[in-house]
Design goal:
10 strands, four-stranded antiparallel sheet, six-stranded mixed sheet, alpha/beta
């Protein structure tokens, strides 16, 4: 069996479009291994199946063919060992920061003292001290996403799945959150699969950048970033890799 933390093995996904009366293939024979603690970014043209793949790994969608394995155990549905962070935060508006973060441990019936200790730890980790009793309506976009990350981590997942988590933020907040995510990853060291439309963001964050083909999505290229942290966007190596990956995606757009 594989020693990788997560294995995506020959995954394909097709959807039946009832109105059009046809089958659309979103993913085709997708294979990827992710090591423990590794940061992997997925990029590609719109509609290439990035989010669909993430949902299959999360157990929210089933593959038409192929399998996903975590620690050599086949994924068959959602589970706390896979934390999911959405672009739109998906916070409970009736729960304060602490209440949102302890939701997972609460569902898992963790004792109240343990839940509160967990919330305290992750509130500190994401830099939200002093905001424990604020509600989502009282938070900025960046603060909401910090809560969403803390909530995902509170279940102590083995893998963190992030679907365009900073896509709705302004440029300044987005850059801040990228640095915060790297800090959190450095401390917590979970394996991360990060979906983004931004090549610059992918190169800034990830150890490997996976470029997907136009739909049906499969792997076109995998780039090992090989740049030390912290990274600088104006450095020659950073710019050269960003342009190389951008060109690879642009070839797929022309194919469509």
């Amino acid at each position: 069996m594989s020693q990788a933390k997560l294995v995506i093995e020959n995954v394909s996904k097709s959807f039946l479009e009832r109105k059009a009366g046809k089958v659309t293939q979103a993913l085709r024979a997708f294979n990827l291994e992710v090591a423990a603690g590794e940061f992997v970014a997925l990029v590609g043209p719109s509609g290439c199946g990035k989010t669909t793949l993430l949902k299959i790994v999360a157990g929210l969608e089933s593959a038409t063919r192929g399998s996903v394995f975590l620690d050599n155990k086949q994924v068959s549905g959602p589970g706390p060992e896979r934390g999911l962070v959405f672009q739109d935060f998906a916070l409970f508006p009736w729960r304060d920061v602490t209440g949102n973060i302890v939701f997972g441990p609460e569902v898992l019936k963790a004792p109240l003292p343990e839940r509160l200790k967990t919330a305290e730890h992750y509130i500190g980790l994401v830099g939200l001290g002093g905001s424990e009793h604020k509600y989502p309506a009282e938070l900025s976009g960046g603060m909401k996403q910090r809560v969403a990350i803390a909530r995902a981590l509170a279940n102590r997942p083995e893998v963190l799945l992030m679907d365009e988590p900073f896509g709705s933020l302004d440029a300044q907040t987005r850059n801040l959150m990228q640095n915060e995510l790297l800090r959190i990853w450095g401390e917590d060291r979970k394996a991360i699969i990060f979906v983004t439309h931004s090549v610059e963001e992918a190169v800034y964050l990830a150890e490997r950048v996976v470029v997907m083909t136009a739909g049906p999505g499969t792997i076109k290229n995998i780039y090992h970033v090989g740049l030390s942290y912290p990274r600088h966007r104006a450095d020659h190596g950073f710019v050269a890799l960003r342009e190389k990956i951008t060109a690879s995606i642009a070839e797929e757009v022309k194919i469509i």
